[in-house]
Amino acid sequence: MSNETKIVSVDLGERSYDISIGSDGPVGAVLSGLDVKRALIVSDSNVAALYLPWCRKKLSEAGLEVSECVFPAGEPSKCLETMAMLYDAAVSARLDRSSVVVALGGGVVGDAAGFLAASYLRGVRFVQVPTTLLAMVDSSVGGKTGINLPQGKNLVGAFYQPVEVDINLDTLVTLQNREYRAGLAEVVKYGVIWDADLFALLEQRTDDLLKQDPMLLADVVARCCEIKAEVVSQDEREGGLRAILNFGHTLGHALENILGYGEWLHGEAVSAGMVYAAEVSVAQHGLTRVEADRIHDVLQALQLPVQWRGPNGDVAWSLVLDAMGRDKKTIGSVLKFVLSDRIGHVDFGCVVAEEALAEVFSG
Ligand SMILES: NC(=O)c1ccc[n+]([C@@H]2O[C@H](COP(=O)([O-])OP(=O)(O)OC[C@H]3O[C@@H](n4cnc5c(N)ncnc54)[C@H](O)[C@@H]3O)[C@@H](O)[C@H]2O)c1
Fold first, then answer.
1. Could you tell me if 51 and 104 are in contact, meaning their C-beta atoms sit under 8 angstroms apart?
2. Ligand 1 neighbour 175 (Cβ under 6 A)
3. Vertex 113, ends 236 and 222: CA angle to 5°?
4. Distance, CA 152 to ligand 1 centroid (Å)?
5. Closest CA relative to residue 338, chosen from 286, 292, 274, 291
């Protein structure tokens, strides 16, 4: 791994912050300039066992008094009970407005710890230290925080930006291979929605990506963060452009919902959803067959699902339509899609007739 740290800036006026990408990242680098005295590290059981001592040491070296709160790993922990535990930990740690919450982990930790930071004392600063590929390229950047309710995913939350995102790529070596590959689906998404050169690089270097080639990974993660930063800077609160980040997610969310969370990881469902969205794009939006095949082929080469009718190819359209209609991003009863006309560019808010969607789904 090169020791060079890459910096990507998220430009949001007074809420601007930097993302640092390297190894042994500068956790808490900006904190010394902010008169911060106390930090509460929030992590899950898997990540804490591996990286809590490293993170604690970094913050202590920055002169902070450090407390920690660890909850069981997994999506079920993104819930109200965990929030109650986190608020207790914040009180016990005597956090005040000058304190900081440090989210050490994947998207589950980042979302819950971010919501703690957004809501405790009406807002304390927080730092994201993402340890999954998905969290590095997606969830740690952009300020969406929140938890699930029994009635649905991400129903409670806030837009709340971190003061710093510290990506330590070395943490990926312990991540399960399947989790890593699921993160690659979001990487491919950035190529399709924004950057044809990134997409071509991914096509050329699938083996190196699967092997986690350090230099390639640093470049690719940095490029994804740049794209997310650009999109978020233009549309912080998802009023428009940010919708392009949902390419492949309309069907992806529906499949997760129908199959039950855990059958397919989020990135796996999004992979299948992107192949479907590419097919709808061919039928409705001028994407060429050759380009749709390239999207299919790169995902397949990365060992991700490309069968949009579920792992066994038997998910019924009626269930999918119902689940897509219940997605919280559906406005009124009209289904809106993100569709591509060429690799590197998409349009959002595309209305597609149900019959056309059904026809593509049935193949
Ligand atoms: N806020 C956003 O913008 C946003 C965007 C996308 C997804 N999300 C949310 O992110 C969550 C999914 O995130 P995720 O995929 O990172 O899942 P996750 O946080 O559950 O992590 C996946 C698994 O990997 C383990 N793990 C994490 N880092 C590890 C490491 N370095 N080594 C070994 N094990 C490690 C975790 O303990 C967990 O078991 C979902 O709740 C989703 O809603 C949020």
1. yes
2. yes
3. 55
4. 18
5. 274
Catalytic residue positions, numbered: 122, 144, 186, 228, 238, 242, 246, 249, 253, 266
- Tell me the CATH number for domain 177-362: 1.20.1090.10
Boundaries of every domain in the chain: 6-174, 177-362
| Cβ atoms of residues 228 and 236 within 8 Å | no
Decide which of 3.40.50.2300, 3.40.50.620, 3.40.50.720, 3.40.50.1970 is the CATH code for 6-174: 3.40.50.1970
Q: Are 354 and 335 in contact (CB under 8 A)?
A: yes
Are 276 and 251 in contact by the 8 Å Cβ rule? The answer is yes
Instruction: Supply the DSSP string of 30-95, one letter for each residue.
Output: TGGGGT--EEEEEEEHHHHHHHHHHHHHHHHHTT-EEEEEEE-SSGGGSSHHHHHHHHHHHHHTT-
Compute, in angstroms, the gap from residue 287 CA to the centroid of ligand 1. Answer: 32
* Nearest protein Cα to ligand 1, atom 30: 175
Closest atom, ligand 1, to C-alpha of 142: 3
Q: Rounded distance, CA 198 to CA 185, Å?
A: 13
Q: Which residue has the higher pLDDT, 2 or 148?
A: 148
171 Cβ closer than 6 Å to some ligand 1 atom: yes
User: Pocket of ligand 1, candidates 128, 132, 181, 212: which has the most ligand atoms within 8 Å of its Cβ, to mutate?
Assistant: 132
What is the pTM (predicted TM-score) of this model? Answer: 0.96
Tens digits of residue pLDDT in 50-91: 999 999 999 998 889 999 999 999 999 999 999 999 999 999
